[in-house]
Structure formats: structure tokens, C-alpha cells
Amino acid sequence: MTEPVFRYHPDPLATGSAMGVQHTCSVCGQLRQVRHQGPIYGRQPDSLCLHCIHSGEASPALGVVACATDGSHTLDMPAQFSDALDVPDEVPHHVVEEITRRTPGFTGWQQQSWLYHCGDGCAFLGPAGYHDVQPHPDALNMLRVSHRQYGWSPEETEQFLHRLDRNADPTAYLFQCLHCGTHLASWDIG
Fold first, then answer.
1. CB 82 within 8 A of CB 106
2. b vs e for 16-35, b when ≥16 Cβ sit within 10 Å of the residue's Cβ?
3. Which one of 23, 72, 84, 138 has the minimum C-beta count within 10 Å?
4. 3-state SS string over the chain?
5. Residue 61: phi, psi to the nearest 5?
6. Whole-angstrom Cα distance, residue 156 to residue 30?
7. For residue 178, which of 102, 101, 125, 112 has the smallest C-alpha distance?
8. Which family, according to UniProt (predicted)?
9. Residue 130 phi/psi, 5° resolution?
10. 164-168-172 Cα angle (round to 5)
11. Which residues contact 57 (CB under 8 A, 6 or more apart)?
């Protein structure tokens, strides 16, 4: 059986969010060839296949029940595979739901967040080092702007950017807009 295709995460094997290994999925019970390796904000299964994420079956199956602090009611909270942080107002709720509940997330050093552009979620292309981001001036400029917000000098920023490493700290995360093709990037340090 072929693996599902995710609009917002086109190659989870290449990004490290999945790995090719035979396993039995804890949600569907099927023998599968690719196993999810990314974050799960919910109950932790022994094994999870990409089919259950794609179909939406994994989110409610791995969800948790939270009680109100006063004990007045409970709330079913579906599992998520990425956080919905800094989502622009123009992004429709169904897009956020697809990214958080039906798309494999990615693991960062601290708090990863999905990027958005043109009123939609972007495609996650993977962790990136300087040489991965360098061919994309729009993404590189986004990283520079991010550093200016922290008061870094231009020299400190350039030194930092040249230290980016896809497999070590600090790391950039490369995205691409599905509509205009703009590349975007965020960064994280351990």
C-alpha cells in the first residue's frame, strides 16, 4: 500500500518525521511500512502509521479528556501533531485543523511552529542548515528579521546564520508557500 500524501508536509520520510520500518500501528492495528516519528500532543502510542494521521483517525484515538478546574465539566481534546502558534487571522480554521490533526509534525529543539503565507499553511520542507537556506533569499531574510527583533547586530546575525546546521543546534526549519512559492524559515536553538 502506498503512503498517503500530505499537502502541508510532502515528504515526512525526508524530513525525519517518519521512518521506514515495519510495524503494527497502535491505532488501526494494521501492519505498515512507515512509522510516524514526530511529536504527538496527546496519548503516546507504541507505534503510529501515517495512514491514521492522514485519515484523521489518530487525532481522536490519541486524544485526552481534560476536566475543568472546578470539576464542572470535561472536555475531549483531540491529539495534535503540531501546535497552532502565531496563526494569522486570515488562515481558515479548517487549514489549522488539517495541519495540527491530520499532518505529521516535526521535532524542534524547543518549540517548533508551523509557518503560514498567502492565507494558508506552508509546506514543511525540513530542518535546514545555512547551505540549505542560502539559495532562498526570502527565507534567509526572514531569519535576519527575526534576529533583529532580539537586538542582535548584523555581524552577530550573520555569524549565527552561518552556524545553522540541519542536524545540530542551531537549526533552521524551511517552508514553502503553496500559492506563491516564497520560501520561509524559522529557527530554534537547544
1. yes
2. ebbeeeebebbbbeeebebb
3. 72
4. CCCCCCCCCCCHHHHCCEEEEEEECCCCCCEEEEEECCCCECCCCCCCEHHHHHHCCHHHHCCEEEECCCCCCEEEECCECCCCCCCCCCCCHHHHHHHHHCCCCCCCCCCCCCCEECCEECEEEEEECHHHHCCCHHHHHHHHHHHHCCCCCHHHHHHHHHHCECCECCEEEEEECCCCCCEEEEEECC
5. -65, -30
6. 51
7. 125
8. Belongs to the UPF0167 family.
9. -55, -45
10. 40
11. 27, 28
Cell of 77: 481534546
Domain edges within the chain: 1-89, 108-190
Q: Which amino acid is at 13?
A: L
Below-70 pLDDT ranges, the chain: 1, 67-69, 71-75
Q: What is the reported pLDDT for 68?
A: 66
Are 116 and 92 within 8 A, CB to CB? no
Cell 520542507 belongs to residue = 125
Partners of 186 in beta bridges: 173
> pTM (2 decimals)?
0.92
Q: For residue 67, what are the contacts with CB-CB under 8 A and spacing of at least 6?
A: 73, 74, 75
Question: Cα angle at 94 between 5 and 7, to 5 degrees?
Answer: 20
